[in-house]
C-alpha cells in the first residue's frame, strides 16, 4: 500500500512502507521447513514468539541505535589510574539481555556442561538466524560464550563452576568478579600482531605460579572486552596452551588486562574489538600444556557454525527487504515485482537463500547428533568449515545485489542495507578466513568416512563426483565450493519442494552460474512465483 503524505511542493507516494512488525519466523517459509526437516518442528510456536518479538519496530530501532552509538574505551580515570573498561550504549545491553534471556549464549548446554538433547542446536540456530537479521554486533560475545563452553570441557573442575554461572538466563553487565554475578559471558583471544591463522607463532607467555599461571604478552584482536573471562592461547613451558583469563583475579582485584585501543571497524560497530596487553595476568590452565590448539578447536568449530548461520540471516534480511520493496514500488506503471528481469534477479537470489538456510540447518542437526552417530560427526566435521566458506563468502555480494533492488534508497543508511553490507565480510574473515576453511575441508576429506560422504552427495544430486579425489591446495576453493553446493542440493532435497531443489541443482551444478544474479539459466515461471512467495507470502 502506498503511503500518501502532503508537502508544500509535492505529494509523497510510491514509497514502500517500512519492513517492520513482522514475525521473522512465520513469514519465512524456507526457515520453517528447514526447522521441521531437521527435527525441531515441535518448537515452531516458541520460535514464532521469538520471531514476533525480534521483528518489532522497537527491535529494529534498537539495532540502529546500537550501531549509531559505538562503544567507547575508558583506558584511564580522571586521576590517571587504569580503568580498562568499555562503555556500551543501552541498546547494546538490551540486545544482550534479550539474547541471553532466550538462551542464545548457552541453550545447547546443560548446567553440568553436557550437550543439551536434540534438537537444541537446530532450535538455537533458528533463533540465532532471526537475531542476526536485526543486530549482529552483540552476537559476537553471544556466540563466543556458547562456544567457549566446548573448550572448557577439557578442564572439568573449572568447567563445573563456569558453566553453572553461564547457563543462567541472566545478563549481568556490571564490572565485578564473575563469582559475584548472576550470569557471565566469555570471549576469546588467539590472534597476535604477527599472525592470526598461524597461532603457533604466538609469543604471549604463560609462567606457572602455583595453582595458576601468569600471562605476559598481547592479543591484536580481543572482541567483547567486557566479557567476564577469555579463553587465551599462550606459550607455557610445555608448548602452546589454552587458558581462562578472568577480568578479576581470585583475590577480587582487577586482573592485568590493559586495553590499548578499540578497532575502528568497517562494520560490527555495536560490538567492541580491542587490542590488549596482558601484564602478569592471572590465568587458569584449560587442558594439558601443549594441547592449546586441540583444546580451543572445540570452541572454534561452533563459532564457525554461527558465522554461517549469521551470514544466512543477513542474506535473508537483505532478500526480504528487496522483495518487500519491489512489491511496493512501481516503475513504468507496473510494480517492480512484476517486471520480468527483476523477477529473474529476485528468484535467483531466493535460490541462494533457500540453499544457505537448508544447508546451515542441516549442519546444525549434525551437531545435534554428532556425539551418537559417526556419520553425523563426519558430516559436521566436513560441512561446518564448508558452510562457513560458502555462505560467508556469498553474503557480501548477495547483499549488494539486494541493495541495488532498492535503488538509491538501498544505499542510504535508514534502509538497513548498508549496515547488513558492512556487517557481512567479518563472518568470512574471522575464525578462519576463506582459504583456511578450504584447507580445513581438504584435511577432513582425507579421512575415508568424510571422502565417502562427499561422493555420496554427488551421486544423490546426479552429478559427477570425480573431482572429489583432488587434494591440490591450489584447487581447494573449486573443490570446497563444489562440496558445499552438493551439500546444499542434498539439504534442499530433504527440506524444500522438489522444484526448488531441482532448479538449484540445474542452475548451480549442471550449468555454470554466472557472476551475477538473474544471469544464470532461466528459472521456470511457476518456480519463480513459488520462490518469491516463499520469501514473503503475499499479504
Ligand atoms: C571484527 C573482528 C573481530 C575479531 N575478533 C577476534 C577475537 O575476539 N579473538 C581473536 O583471537 N581474533 C579475532 N579476530 C581476528 C581474526 O580471527 C583474524 O584476523 C583471522 O583469524 C585472520 O588472521 P590474520 O588477520 O592474522 O590474517 P593472516 O593469518 O595473516 O591471514 C591472511 C590471509 O591469508 C590466508 N591464509 C592463511 N594461511 C594460508 C595458507 N596456508 N594458504 C593460503 N592462504 C592462507 C587467510 O585465509 C587470510 O585470507 C577478529 C577479527 C575481526 C576482523
Can you put this structure into words, describing what you see?
This protein has about 550 residues and is α+β, with helices and mostly antiparallel strands. The chain has 16 helices and 13 strands. The strands form four sheets. Strands 5, 6, 7, 8, 9, 10 and 11 form a seven-stranded mixed beta sheet that branches. The chain has a two-stranded antiparallel sheet with strand order 1-2. A two-stranded antiparallel sheet has the order 3-4. A hairpin with a 2-residue loop joins strand 8 (about 230-235) and strand 9. The structure holds flavin-adenine dinucleotide. Flavin-adenine dinucleotide binds near residues 268, 430, 434 and 435.
In brief, what are we looking at here?
The protein is of the alpha+beta class and 539 residues long. It is 49% helix and 14% strand.
Please render the helix and strand layout as text:
Layout: E1 5-6, E2 11-12, H1 29-37, H2 44-54, H3 57-68, E3 72-76, E4 82-87, H4 90-101, H5 120-134, H6 139-152, H7 156-166, E5 186-189, E6 205-209, E7 212-223, E8 229-236, E9 239-246, E10 257-262, E11 273-286, H8 292-327, E12 330-331, E13 334-335, H9 340-369, H10 374-405, H11 417-429, H12 434-444, H13 448-461, H14 476-495, H15 498-510, H16 525-535
Parallel strand pairs: 5-8
Antiparallel strand pairs: 1-2, 3-4, 6-7, 7-11, 8-9, 9-11, 10-11, 12-13
Helix pairs in contact: 1-9, 2-5, 3-4, 5-8, 5-9, 6-8, 8-9, 8-10, 8-11, 9-10, 9-14, 9-15, 9-16, 10-11, 10-12, 10-14, 12-14, 13-14, 14-15
Radius of gyration: 23 Å
Q: Overall mean pLDDT score?
A: 95
Q: Indicate the structural class.
A: alpha+beta
**Hey, roughly how much beta strand do the residues contain?**
5-15%
Largest sheet features: 7 strands, mixed
For the terminal residues, how far apart are their CA atoms? 10 Å
The level of helicity is 40-55%
Number of discrete helical segments: 16
Ligands in the model, by name, code or SMILES, are: flavin-adenine dinucleotide
